[in-house]
Amino acid sequence: MRFIETFKNIWTIEELRKRILVTVLLVLVYRLGCYVVLPGISPSDIDALASFTNKSGLMQLLDMFSGGAFSQASIFALGIMPYITASIVIQLCGMILPSFQKMQREGESGRQKMNQYTRYLTVLILILQAPAYLINLQVQVNGAANGAAMSFGFWTVVYLTIILAAGSMFIMWLGERITDRGIGNGISFIILVGIIARLPGALFFEFTSRLPGTTAGQGGLVMFIVEVVLLFAVTVGAVLLVQGTRKVPVQYAKRIVGNRQYGGARQYIPLKVNAAGVMPIIFAQAIMFIPMTLAGFRGAESGFLHAFTDINSFWYNAIFFLLIVAFTYFYTAITVRPTQMAEDMKRNNGFIPGVKPGKKTAEYLDAIMSRITLPGSIFLGIVAILPAFARFFGISQNFAQFFGGTSLLIMVGVVLDTLQQVESHLTMHHYDGLMKEGKIKGRTTGQGY
Fold it and tell me: What is the mean pLDDT of residues 10-26?
């Protein structure tokens, strides 16, 4: 009954209702575009590409983030990931290059400039990725045992590259419209929709494969129920990881200005257990692509290097785990700056009880971040390699991808952010929130994915 009442309250608020309808409409446009096939691609060509994608764990990962458009040879095949890649590069430039740091301090005008640079870099990445996608499509179609022969000429590659680039830029535009007129962060929401679009098919395939009489029907429906319960438990753990914080008390000194008193209240600095978000997983995956590429060029069919071509192998996941732990510390050290936090507190007459302001406060905050980052990084690494464990216990590759990794953390983070916005609209109009007690906390790391 409470759910129905909450839904009625949501529908009663005109602004919130319009935002939800706009979001649904734009998402439908995106999903329809995922099934618009590139010119000159036949159904047999799509079958060859889909067969290759299902056999490769890496290709399945790319197909998941594009909502299935990758394996459908769609105009949206490259998805939103080129824009995400460009955004990460621009963020790193903002941490390293003084000119980008200056733009970050310029406020709205600086943000617009950085967004413009992100778009330019996205187009450049698309110009490089689109021909690579077409070459891969050509190789897979010609290598399939269907008698097909595909050969893209120079001008065919040019106009198909333009179509693929325009498709990705259109997705980016849809994401910006969702952010402005819809609900939630548009880019993140599109990634969420692409990931969730694969869930029903993977769930149905896993269910049918567990039926008695099938080749993989070990355990039957009981095993399928156990898998669903484990998936729920992993999701709860991911929610705890995203929302976990360590509250540091801060006391502000009293100040009398005229007839008013300022300060004197105790507040808290919420230091996140996972301040780096999903960025360590993204960085680690980018590094792991290097040995995959080298193994492909050298044609390694066995040995240590070949282990990196299989995302379910021991060495791949062991090194992947260590890279995530290392990158978590690296990214946290860059984004969370205890010295600046200590200076801001000192400037506003704030102090941590029992700790001297200035250098001692910075050292205290740094020590806390070091202690909470260790369990956070280990848990993040475990979540990232959980799909390999799921695959080891007989879960299908498609369904195993939902047991952890970037996809699960993105889903949890985006859903929490969206629910937080809905709850803010409800409380602003004097309605009860989505939860009977407490409030929904979204991500506070600042990244949109």
Answer: 86
pTM score of the predicted model: 0.75
Interatomic CA distance for residues 51 and 383, integer angstroms: 28
- Residue 189 falls inside a structural domain: no
Strand ranges across the sheet with 245-252: 266-272, 245-252, 350-351
Query: Which residue range forms the structural domain that includes residue 169?
Result: 18-182
Number of domains in the chain: 2
CATH number of the domain within which 357 lies: 1.10.3370.10
- Between 323 and 445, name the one with better pLDDT: 323
Residue 134 predicted with pLDDT over 80: yes
- Are 158 and 275 in the same domain? no
